[in-house]
Amino acid sequence: MQKAKSGVSLFGRGSLLETRRVADILRTETAGGLLLVAAALAAVILANTPWSDSYTAVSDAEFGPSGLHLHLSVAEWTADGLLAIFFFVAGLELKREFVAGDLRDPRRAALPVAAAIGGMAVPALIYTVVNVVADNGAPRGWAIPSATDIAFALAVLGLINTHLPSSLRTFLLTLAVVDDLLAIVIIAVFYTSGLHLAPLLLALIPLAAFGVLVQRRVRSWWLLLPLALVTWALVHASGVHATVAGVLLAFTVPVLRRDGGTGPGLAEHFEHRWRPLSAGFAVPLFAFFAAGVTIGGAGGLSEPVTIGVVLGLLLGKPVGVLVSSWLVHRFTRAELATGLSWWDVTGVATLAGVGFTVSLLIGELAFGPGSSHDENAKLGILVGSVLAAAVASVLLRARNRHYRRLVEEEERDDDRDGIPDVYQRGDTE
Fold first, then answer.
1. Membrane spanning segments where (predicted)?
2. Which of 103, 138, 176, 296 could form a disulfide with 97 if both were Cys (CB 3.0 to 4.6 A apart)?
3. Partners of residue 336 on adjacent β-strands
């Protein structure tokens, strides 16, 4: 295949260091994704069995200091508290990608950023059109089908055992990270009600102290964790969703080493420490209390909210990602990396329609936990994600032989030094 005229290939191979780092992340996220699937399945089963009352009672049980606006239900603690860990890790990953990762190159960053924007805009448009036509007062949930759940998506990849090229898996990971950033902006701007400036301004004090310490490369948890908790509590009291605090804290952490070396910096150190807790505990526990939709009690697949979410995830996501990727190809004159085809991109774009964690969160913020619209949104998220995973599995399995051939050829080129020849040649396509 002819090389890209622009000097950059779409879905090209990143640096060896970046590829190995992404491989470590993917292993953690894939394992976490399997736990996420199990937690969601358990929630749906419990919500539709004689144990549903016990499940609801535990979910609605409240605890915490009421004077600090922290007398919350168990479900609210998982959504406001545990998901802050998830977004802290996402913030670390995002900052690292654009400061020291392969995406510090604007030419490489253009593709996942454009794909993420398109992958959020088209599902939102589809959902809005469906619900405006229905005139049911539910367009407020327009952002529900816009997010990609990387853990769930990678769990699907693990289950179908595909030899998807690392460059496409890196693209999927980066797309999901940018998705998370856009979701945080949407949550902060569109789903913040009753803003209180005093606690928001007070939150800047512990946030700044946290930033000063990490800039000095302080790693002591007994210093940093109390500042992070105070920042989170004040952001929560301000009316801004508390998960925003996780991103703000992550953005203060330095990526590069103070001595200028090439080893992992503080951001990567924190990411390594906190990612297993996020993927293996925080996100699955949130899913367990958020995904418990009563199938018979929801309005069903005929409800506009459900239809809008399903169409947004199943059609809007892949169309938005695929069209945006093609536009980058069209206007930058970059070609697909050697060995890849647009069927590969279509499969990954369809897999991006597996939305779950952030979609469930936005559904609760838009309609209120337990409301009829929220129940319909949950049903749409579950159905849309399962259908997107099924279609993506068919597409990727059809390409599995091609992926295996690429992997086998690459392995034959490896030397005993453990470094693939493609990196020693400096070929990043």
1. 30-48, 68-89, 109-130, 142-160, 172-191, 197-214, 221-237, 243-260, 281-301, 307-328, 340-367, 379-396
2. 103
3. 10
CA distances 371 to 89, 147, 274, 359, Å, are: 30, 21, 33, 15
Helix or strand holding residue 73 (H, E): strand 72-73
Instruction: Say if 297 falls within a structural domain.
Output: yes
Which among 145, 358, 118, 116 is positioned nearest to 241, based on CA atoms?
Answer: 358
pTM above 0.90, yes or no: no
Q: How far apart are CA 329 and CA 357, in angstroms?
A: 31
Following DSSP, what letter does each residue of 266-295 receive, concatenated? HHHHHHHHHHHHIIIIIHHHHHHHH----T
Distance separating alpha carbons of residues 98 and 95, to the nearest angstrom? 5
Instruction: Give the Cα separation of 103 and 97 in Å (integer).
Output: 6
Separation CA 389–CA 314 (nearest Å): 9
| Dihedral sign computed on CA atoms, order 37, 43, 46, 49 | negative
pLDDT at 259: 77
Whether 321 contacts 148, CB under 8 Å:
no
Mean pLDDT, contiguous 10-residue spans, the chain (429 residues): 49 55 60 84 91 92 83 92 91 84 74 90 95 81 89 74 68 80 86 85 96 94 95 92 91 88 83 88 92 73 91 96 90 72 87 90 89 91 93 83 66 54 48
Q: Record the tokens describing residue 356, joined without a space.
A: 């779950």
d(C-alpha 206, C-alpha 213), whole Å: 11
Cα separation, 104 vs 102, in Å, equals: 6
pLDDT at 157: 72
* Helix or strand run (H / E) with residue 192: none
Strands 62-63 and 72-73: antiparallel
CA pseudo-torsion sign 215, 221, 223, 229? positive
Does residue 390 sit within a domain?
yes
- Residue 212 domain-assigned (yes or no): no
Q: What is the rounded distance in angstroms from the CA atom of residue 173 to the CA atom of residue 167?
A: 10
DSSP secondary structure code for residue 4 in this structure: P
Q: State which residues form the domain around 415.
A: 16-191+241-424
Amino acid identity, position 358: V
pLDDT for res 301: 80
Long-range contacts of 368-377 (CB under 8 A, 24+ apart): 369/75, 369/76, 372/298, 372/299, 373/138, 373/141, 373/305, 375/293, 375/294, 375/297, 375/298, 375/299, 376/298, 376/299, 376/300, 376/303, 376/305, 376/306, 376/309, 377/141, 377/144, 377/305, 377/306, 377/309
* Cα 211 to Cα 200: distance, rounded to the nearest angstrom: 16
